[in-house]
Amino acid sequence: MTDTPQKGEVRLPKSLRGRFAALRNVWPFLKLVWQASPTLTLIAALLRLIRAVLPVAALWFGKLIIDEVVRLIGMENGPDTMLNWWQAGYADALLLYLAAEFGLAILSDVTGRLIGLTDSLLSERLSVSSSIKLMEHAATLDLEDFEDTEFQDQLDRARRQTSGRMTLTGQLLNQMQDIITVLTFAGGLVVYNPWLIVLLILALIPAFLGETYFNAQTYSLDYQRTPARRELDYIRQTAASVDTAKEVKIFGLSRFLIDRYRFLSESFFKANRRIAEQRALWGGVFTTIGTVGYYLAYVWIIGRTLTGQLTIGDLTFLSASFRRLRTLLEGLLTSFSTTAAQALYLDDLFGFFKVAPEIASPENPVPLPVPIKSGFVFEDVGFRYPGAEKWAVRHLSFELQAGETLALVGENGAGKTTLVKLLARLYDPDEGRILLDGRDLREFDIDELRGAMGVIFQDFVRFNLSASDNIAVGRISERDNRARIEEAAARSLAAQVITGLPAGYDQMIGKRFRNGVELSGGEWQKVAIARAYMRGAEVLILDEPTAALDARSEYEVFLRFKELSEGKTAILISHRFSSVRMADRILVLANGRVEAIGTHEELLAAGGRYAELFELQAAGYR
Ligand SMILES: Nc1ncnc2c1ncn2[C@@H]1O[C@H](COP(=O)(O)OP(=O)(O)OP(=O)(O)O)[C@@H](O)[C@H]1O
Question: Where does the record say this protein resides (predicted)?
Fold first, then answer.
């Protein structure tokens, strides 16, 4: 193959071009299986070891039986009834062989069943353990990773591995079993004539290479199509889900979505069909070559039997061995290339595990100051979202004093949420630094730092959980502390909402599950704000989760927030100036920079953007 892709040719990403290089994943995968359940893995391996030698043993006894029968038939003046045969002791050997073959048949059935059982248990264990590993690893990664589309593709592929590739365990173990069986059969053949094996292998190699090639092609296609497949999933979800049904109906979007789905899946189909057709064609050619090899060997065996060099038992043993070997080798080679293909897919899973977070705790973190003494200082902080040209915030310098409530105002896109994310170390600044009591945020333990903060974002998560759990997520370790949950609910005004629900605090909210009750936008916000109180953190941040509250509720929520944040450091973001003016100081952001900072009165007196926006809103109410 040349290095320039031909028209229509699908190329693997560079790192995956070595078709068999992916087999390096087999070992880590087996380790994963072992970790999922050592006992089951051992049992599965042992059972296969036993089962591996059964076929050749059974065939051998078959040969002995036939030779014995032929010998007995050829006896002159032999007994004429079965009973006489038996009594004369002539049938002893025959009976022994029969009993042995019968025993092997039973053993084969039993081990077969047991293997099925252990495999299904093992793959279940593996599916659970790798899903858990995936979630655990995802939890360590940065927000930035999740917002990166390439990462989303990789996560998507990795997620598929945890459920889709688990047949690989059984496949690998089966291959080991088949290899042992092949070796035993081959041993038998070699005894008669080593050339038989060479003939067999030569006939099979083309099929093997063909399979491997097409598997690599299929994977490559799949790989390149991950973004499109995610889009397909997204369209399917958008076209038929509770979250979108409202707008899809009002705007009459279903036809548009369906057409887009059809268009995308059509190109999938065409590409898959091309590979499937080629595979079928070449597969047919290669199988024929295998059949030719088999019949050449068969002719040789028959010839040797006719000339008396082989017995009838040998003939049956050899021809059956040859047939079985061919099927086995064929299966083995195909499954070997399927394994190579599956191992390619595993690259995604292991690749995902290799993604390391950038935002991590230092080796020797400094202890977090409790309580905070001086507060936070932003020193010339600049941050740009990955891939973005524009700085979201830049040359940002200000102080958030311990114990003060600071309001952030600014037009859409001014950088308010970004500032909050930087403070919670969801991102690290690209320029400058953020200090807490004089130490860079990067010097603290990340979990400790986040543990001291309670942030409610404007796009807070509406968990499809009970009302009480929806509040408890603020401090999940206190989930069973009903008094704390109720107190938080009372403070955020969520209590009135929850007591009105059919099952009160135990009411499932959200429409995803049975008996779920949907809340209004403002009601959801009251529940979400309760999380901040539930958290009881030293630094409280409300990033505009009050937009859907009616004016009276927002006023009341902020009044309580002000009371509650007495002695705590707090940030609140709102577009409503009636709430904003309650803060000790107000920071006006514009284009990612600090435009002004001061009290409500100071800013009004200064007559800048704040005064202008304030006037605009006030005029609207007059
Ligand atoms: N995840 C993201 N990836 C890339 N760019 C982003 C991301 N989030 C925000 N931005 C960009 O960063 C800038 C600041 O956004 P930010 O969300 O901080 O504004 P905001 O002041 O909170 O706005 P709003 O009042 O609308 O909530 C905007 O230009 C926005 O387009």
Answer: Cell membrane
589 Cα–ligand 1 center, Å: 12
DSSP run (H or E) holding 275: helix 254-306
Please compute the mean of the pLDDT values over residues 42-60 and round it to a whole number: 91
Q: Is the pLDDT of residue 132 over 70?
A: yes
- Assess contact for 538 and 423: CB atoms under 8 A: no
Backbone angles phi, psi at 88, to 5 degrees: -75, -10
Dist. CA 529–CA 541, nearest whole Å: 10
Can you tell me the mean pLDDT for 117-137? 88
Is the complex ipTM more than 0.85?
yes
Over residues 476-511, the pLDDT tens digits come to: 889 999 999 999 999 888 999 999 999 999 999 987
Q: Locate tokens 């394994």: which residue?
A: 339
Which residue puts its alpha carbon closest to atom 2 of ligand 1? Answer: 385
Quick: pLDDT tens for 243-296.
Answer: 787 778 777 788 888 898 998 888 888 888 888 888 888 888 887 887 787 788
Angstrom distance (rounded) from CA 220 to CA 223: 5
In the structure, which protein residues have their CB atom closer than 6 angstroms to any atom of ligand 1? Answer: 147, 385, 388, 392, 410, 412-418
DSSP codes joined into one string, 100-128: HHHHHHHHHHHHHHHHHHHHHHHHHHHHH
Q: Which of 143, 381, 385, 594 to mutate to test the pocket of ligand 1 (most atoms within 8 A of CB)?
A: 385
Name 230's Cβ contacts closer than 8 Å, sequence gap at least 6.
Answer: 152, 153, 156
The closest-lying atom of ligand 1 relative to the alpha carbon of residue 385 is 4
Report how far ligand 1's centroid is from the alpha carbon of 494 (Å): 29
Contact status, residue 401 vs residue 372, Cβ threshold 8 Å: no
State yes or no: pLDDT of 86 exceeds 80. Answer: no
Cis peptide before 365 (omega within 30 of 0): no
pLDDT in tens, 199-211: 777 777 777 777 7
- Written as six digits, the tokens of 138 are 């995802």
What domains can be seen in the chain, in order of their start residue? 20-354 (1.20.1560.10), 401-427+439-452+538-622 (3.40.50.300), 463-536 (no CATH)
Task: Name every residue whose Cβ is closer than 8 Å to that of residue 299 and which is 6 or more positions away in sequence.
Answer: none
Going by their DSSP bridges, the two strands 431-436 and 375-383 should be labelled as: antiparallel
